[in-house]
Amino acid sequence: MPSEAVLRSDAIAGDNGMSPEALRRLEAMAAAARRRRRLQALLPWLVIIGMFAVWEAAVHAFNIPQFVLPAPSDIALSMVKWWAPLLDNSWQTLMTTLIGFGLAIVFGLLLGVAIGSSTLLYHGLYPLLIGFNSVPKVAVVPILVIWFGIGTVPAVITAFLISFFPIVVNVATGIATVEPELRDVLRALGARHTDIIRKVGLPRAMPYFFASLKISITVAFVGSIIAETVAANKGIGHLMILASSRFDVPLVFAGLMVTAVLGVAMYVVAVAIEDRTTGWATRGQNDQQHVKFGSA
Amino acid sequence: MSGGRMERPFVEISGVAMRYGGVEGTLALQGCSLNVAKGEFIAVVGPSGCGKSTLMRLVTGLWPATAGHVVVSGTEVAGPLSIAGMAFQNPIMLPWRNILNNVMLPLEVVEPHRRLLSRERAKYEARARDLLALVGLAGFEKKFPWQLSGGMQQRASLCRALIHEPALLMLDEPFGALDVFTREDLWAVLQDVWIARRPTVILVTHDLREAAYLADRVLVMSARPGRIIAERKVDFPRPRSLETTYSPEFVALVHDLREYISAARKGEEIVHAE
């Protein structure tokens, strides 16, 4: 039987003895991959700029009145004009959203872990959760106002309620779907239920958790702004209601823009954290190219 | 059933039955009895679906038997045994841990290592590295499972089963998903490990050459409900090599085992096994 070491060193020798033709081709492939990555990074910006350009052109071409659909340039002017209240109110919205979202993370993780690790809890609580999630959050806001009055608290709670559910479901799924064999390996070692959750369930649920954060952070903005439009004296939602009552449509759109930017920014933060902590879940797809070409 | 009568066998299974899913469920095992001496390497072969994997789970205490007794190391098995190491057909590595940390996972669970791990990390790490080197994975400690081939992952899985120096090693078709060449390499690796450490090994497999190459004794199971219907001692000197597998005696043994399996699938009794 030939030993493995012999076979392996043969294979490496074959790799190193690359012909110039092969090298050239490999480099061309690497260059193509680089171009592709550059285009990928640029594409979102091109799409956004393109959308604004088409919008601007359409408003001018069809002579759409400003109170129906303001042109992006009008919105930009309005943003410059009202920068101070916009900044002030978006700061308020960002804070209420982040507090609600933070609460959703804490309670979502706890409940998700509890539900995911116990079939009894899962079956007991799931219908109730579905019921809660089916209730339109706009309908809840007036109740919150009765309980807590007009202000920040209803907005925080609405953001929490709306972003809580995706986290619970995802974390529970991640923990409940641990491979039975893996569970057996640990159980056969005498591992306790908590050991299995800690060593396998939680790390395994992390990609699910971060996937849910990306959904949750964007809907958390929806929640706080809904509450602000109904009952608040501060925040982007409140500002938009004021602006629309004065028929200042560019300012309404400016508020929408700010919200969208905040949402995207928070999403990017969530993605960055995800990449850092659960890179394993993508099985190193990103550095695969790097490994291939780096080792050549 | 033969086997060392001088001392008490390390694993005693007597009259074990296992039925899944309640009274009307599938009967996987019935009247299954076998003994394994300490330090012995046995292989269990049988037609597919005969309850080989069920047997593994009963011995390690993952599932309770519906009837009969399973005694390991003199005590009746009532729950998971921490003296057992397990490896399955699937290497099932944790993708978020590198190979070294995957191999060291049992140490975080099994006493007394669990208590000692943080204090004596260096010692344990050295042990894991030695083990990885033994199976030909030196230099791969910091790699992640997905960066390794299936055969390499299976080697690591074997290390994980061995790291806490279990007295009993349970292998459930550990090489079943590998190609023939890798499989034959790993037979030699497993044999080396066994010769070096002498754990008691129960290997479940459907590969008759594998069973004959590795085991001291090969047990044949009947079709479901499974029980042991034949057993063969394997006397080839160790260490065995691939050359052994081409000797006429080896071929004859595999041929005999094949006949038992055919008979088992047809449901025939085999009276004289040896």
Account of the protein in words:
The complex is a heterodimer of chains A (296) and B (274). Chain A has 296 residues and is mainly α. Chain A has helices spanning 4-16, 20-61, 72-81, 83-117, 119-134, 137-148, 152-176, 180-187, 193-230, 236-245, 249-277, 285-295. Mean pLDDT of chain A is 86; it is low at 1-5 and 286-296. Chain B is α/β, with parallel strands linked by helices. Chain B has a domain at 1-83 and 198-274: 3-Layer(aba) Sandwich (Rossmann fold), CATH 3.40.50.300. Chain B has eight helices and ten strands. Chain B has helices at 52-59, 99-103, 113-116, 121-134, 150-162, 180-197, 208-214, 248-266; strands spanning 11-19, 27-36, 41-45, 67-72, 75-76, 84-87, 168-172, 200-204, 217-221, 228-233. Chain B has a six-stranded mixed beta sheet with strand order 6-7-8-3-9-10, with helices on both faces. A four-stranded antiparallel beta sheet of chain B has the order 2-1-4-5, covered by helices on one side.
How many domain regions of chain A? 2
Largest interface by Cβ-Cβ < 8 Å: A-B, 25 and 34 residues
Mean pLDDT of chain A: 86
Question: What is the SS-derived class of chain B?
Answer: alpha/beta
Count the strands of chain A? 0
Question: Which percent band covers the strand fraction of chain A?
Answer: under 5%
Ends distance of chain B: 11 Å
First-to-last CA distance of chain A = 29 Å
What CATH calls the topology of the largest domain in chain A is MetI-like fold
Radius of gyration of chain A: 26 Å
Judged by helices, strands and strand pairing, the structural class of chain A is mainly alpha
Tally of separate helices of chain A: 12
The helix fraction of chain A, in percent, is: over 70%
Question: CATH homologous superfamily of the largest domain in chain A - what is it?
Answer: MetI-like
